[in-house]
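Morning, I've got a small favour to ask if you have a moment. I owe you a coffee for this, so here goes:
>
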Amino acid sequence: MVFFFFPETRYERDVKAAVAGVGENASESEVSTTIDPKDIATEEVRDAHSPPPQNKKTYLQELIPISPLNTKYSYLQLFIRPWPLIVYPALIYTFLIYAMNLGWGTVILNTQANLYQNPPYNMTPGINSLIKLPFYIGILFGTAIGPITDKFAEWTARKRGGVYEPEFRLVWLIIPYIIQPVGILMYVPFSYIRYSNVR
């Protein structure tokens, strides 16, 4: 599903051609003085002041697993470029969320056998293994949300006259933001009942 529904997002843009396109359509003074931020999404402003559109990749081109080499930058520049992202609040938040998911997943997988195969639940290994099914169902739904967010972001950008904002993708994060903590909080009381009875 990841291979067929998550497109390659790396796209080589010709910055010089884009700047030249703006220069042909409008002078520098016109670009800096006549564009109103409220009108940036209108067809007239985009036609007069936007760089010429580039060809969109086909579906098969997006499936190519290897991108062409970027010859504009040295290996040292490409190595140093990502490091400032460490201090970005969005990246720190993503790191903490991923760490929490990984930590709780490890806790649940390593404790559920001892938790449910002993009193007071006394589940057999076969019944206990069925608890792992929701993991796979959740992974399938979570994988499907990726393409949905892409289409939703495209639809929202078209609705706003071609203006795209990264916040469009945050709407679909509301679903796992609610469901996952609820699932973790449901597991905690079961473990508390089990270990309180042991003591």
